[in-house]
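User: Could you write out the 3D structure of this protein bound to TNX? I've included everything you need below.
Assistant: Certainly. Input first, then the structure.
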Amino acid sequence: MVCESAVRRLAMLSACVAAAACGRARPTTTPVPTPVTAARPIHTVVPVPSSIEITPTDTFRIDTTTRVVVAAGGGFAAEGIAAYLTNLLGGPLAPAPRTLSAEEAAPPRSVQLALDASKTALGLEGYELVVNRDGVKLTAAQPNGLFYGVQTIRQLLPWSIEHRAAMNRRLWLPGARITDTPRFVWRGAMLDVSRHFIDGEAVKRYIDLMALYKLNRLHLHLSDDQGWRIEIASRPNLTAHGGSTQVGGGAGGFYTKAQFADIVAYATSRFITIVPEIDMPSHTNAALASYPELNCDGVAKPLYTGTNVGFSAFCVEKDSVYAFINDVVKDIAAQVPAPYFHMGGDEVEKLTHDQYIRFVERVQEIITANGKQMIGWGEIAPAKLAPNTIVQHWRRDSAAIHVARGGKVILSPGPKTYLDMKYDSTTTLGLRWAGLIEVRDAYDWNPATLLPEVPETSLLGVEAPLWSETLVKLEDYEFMAFPRLAVLAEVAWSPQGARDWEAFRMRLAHQGPRLSALGVNFYRSPQVPWVTR
Ligand code: TNX
C-alpha cells in the first residue's frame, strides 16, 4: 500500500526533471505521443479525495465482459448513473447494466453501485470506493455521491477512457480504498453568455467538463448591457431586439424556452444546479433598449456593443420597472427547479445609495414572492437582507455585514477565481484588472482565511466566474477556464490539509492528456510539468 505522503515525495523528485523537459507545450487538441517525462504519481485524481489509499499491485482490469450492476433498491437514479458509467467503460457494445435482486450478491469481477441511506456520514455528495482485483464497489448514501464516485473511477482509469475510439485501449484500475466527501456544498462556475453568446451545445460541453471535476453549480449570467439571452414569454422584445447583438456587434443570440429547458435537464443529469442571473439595476442596457418604459425618459436606449460598465440603470422610481422584474422573475423561476435567483446588483453608478438599497430590498421581495432565494453580488450586503439571501463576494465589498446577520457567502475573489484574468503578461485573451492569475495563484489560497470576518462556517463555497468581454469562440472560453477550473474544483472539494501545490501540479500534469483527449483547448502553464500521454 502506498499513501499520499509517499506519493508527494515521489512527485517532488520527478517534478523538476519533468518541468525542464516539458517546457511550454503548444496548444493542441489531439494527444501527441512523445515520451512520458513525469513519473506517474500514485494517482492523478483532481480534486484530491479526502482519504485515499492506493494498492497498485491489486489491479482491476476492465474488459468487454465487465458488467456494471446496481445493488437492489438503487432505483431510477442509480440505474441512470450505471448507464452513464457503462457508456464510459465500453460504449454501446458493453454488457447492459443490471439491477440485482435483494438476495443476489454482485457477480465476480463486476462494478457494483450501491445506495445505502444508512451511510449518513457520506452526506448528499460523499462516496466510498473499494477497488481490488476481484471487483469494484462504489457506495453512497445519495445518487449525487454515486455520480462523484463514478467521476473518481473515471479519473483512476487511464486517459484513454475519454477516447472510446482509442486503438487497443487497455483499461485498468489500481487497487484503492477511498472515502470522499466535499469541503463545500457550493462548487460553482459562472458563464457570461451575455457579452458574447454561446449556444446550448457549448454550455452542455462546459457542464460535462464541470462534472469531471465534481463541480455542482452553473451560474448563467443571462443578461447584461450587451445582450439578453433567455426568452421571456410576456416580453418578447427582450430577445428579439435585446438579444440581437453582442460585444463587437456580432449577431448575439438567446436560448428559447426549449433550449433553456434542454440545458437545465442536461445539467440535472450531471447533478449540476443551474443558477440564473438577471443583472440589475445596472448592466441593463439590453432591457432598456427593448422596453422604453424601463427608462426615466420613456425612450428606448440604443443597443450597446462596447465593454464599459456602470452606465446603465433601470428607472427605479417607476412601478413599471417592478412589474417588469416580476414578469421576468416569475417566468425564469418556473424554468429552473433550483431555489435560487441571482439579481446581480453590481457596479451601479447611476443611482444614489438610498435608491440602490431600496431597489435591492424590493427585488428581494419579488424574488421571495416567486418562491426563490435571492443571490446578489457583494454590493447588496448593506441592504436589509433576509438571512437566507446569499451574498457573492467578488472584490473589497461588504460581505462581512451579511455574515454578522447570520447570512451565507459564496467566494469569487477576483484575484483568485476570475477565469477571465490573463495567466501572464503574454496571454492575448482576457482582462487584467484583478491581476494576472497563473495556475499556482489560483491554487494557493484558503477560503476560510480570505476575509477576516468571514469564517468557514459562513461560507457556502466558492465559484469561478468566466466573463466574456474578450471571449468569442468556445475555444477561447476553454483556454481561460482550463486548467484553472480544475484548480478551483480542488479548492472547493478537498480538505485544506490534503491540498499541496507540489502534489497538485503533478496530478494536474496528468490531466493534460485527458483534456487533450476530450479536445479541450487548455493553457499549457509552464508551472505544470505536463505529460502528453
Ligand atoms: C466585473 S464581477 C464585473 C463584470 C465584468 C468583470 C470583468 C462583477 C460582479 N462585475 O461586469 O464582466 O468585472 O472581469
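Residues 1-36 have pLDDT under 50 and may be disordered.
User: Perfect, thank you.
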